[in-house]
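#help-structures
NK: newbie question, is this the right format to request a structure? protein is FAD-binding domain-containing protein
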Amino acid sequence: MGSDENFDIVVVGAGPVGLSFAASLAQSELKVAVVEQNTFYSLANPAFDGREIALTNASIRTLRELGAWDVIPASDKSALQGARVLNGSSAFALRFDPPSNSGEPLGVLVPNCRIREALFKIVRLQDRARLLCGHSVVDATNSQEGAVVTLSNGARLTARLVVAADSRLSATRDLLGIGADINRLGHSMLICRVRHERAHHQIAIEWFDHHQTIAILPLAEGVSSLLLTLRSNEAYRLLAFDDDLFLSELTKRCRGRLGKMTLASKRHTYPLVTTWAHKFRAPSAALIGDAAIGMHPVTAHGFNIGLSSQKQLARGIMTACRDGRNVGDPDMLHIYERRLRLSAAPLYHATNILVGLYSRDHLAARLARHLGLRFAQHVPLVRHGISAELQR
């Protein structure tokens, strides 16, 4: 690569959303660069990171349209036939099930690394997409005339549009002068796969217990992904335990729900941070995925919103190209921002309210949670509406 190169679009970040955006532009004649600070090898061979993504049917359709769905091995796809929400020691469970006549699961669980690997393979086949790996973005300037991105190796990339897809703590977003509400929640997720003796029946469990939240995601028979949300200092304390002590602690915290357990993967921790960018676009620039909206994982919907955001932006760009307009057309970016804000804001803010309620452990909060779950169970409009959102 020379010191200066011209592109139609520069995408910063080769995570699943950045790669899917590049793949969405495959049918265009646009010259696209995807900049990623990690190495080419790590992109081609992503390591298992503990995260299992609950894909809605809409996200599956998008991945299928991109050609990535069939690249993912069937053995890495786990159908989600239902979900249960529990509160404390109560035996009551709020139930979410797919409609009896739908013939579709509630969703499908796929490891994050397998999605990334599949999308990487698709983008690698594109003639007009360039993967620029091993370099970070150190500067970005933008105006109505275009954008200039400077990489850590000194190369300068000019583009008609720069798209930030580089995480919820996006450095590119900062360089573009776009602010964001960043909420560091003081909690972390501790994630691992476990083998267990009791059957999960492909039912996910979200359990809001005292001073902790436990999510159990069903994978292969007798295997689940277990997510424990705790105060960060407590999560790191558990991370330091040896395997036997850690399994003993997990069994106690799960109250034996899965029976005897053994570890089926390494343990991973992730600090919980939610973000909402003040704007999703700027002159000749746009944000997608976590750079725009970083959802709390309690609803397991953040990836689906990110995948939807890139699809909306790619569709707007393709329409602008057909109409002879610039890929950074201000009106197109305004429409993209408005639609994403309208579609994502209700779930984002409702999730934050839910997290606020379920992170408090005093008696009034526990009672409110209990009554809320029972209300939702007995009002079909609420329960079926959430199920429909998961399935859409």
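mod (FA): yep, format's fine, and the tokens are attached above. The chain has eleven helices and 20 strands.
NK: thank you!
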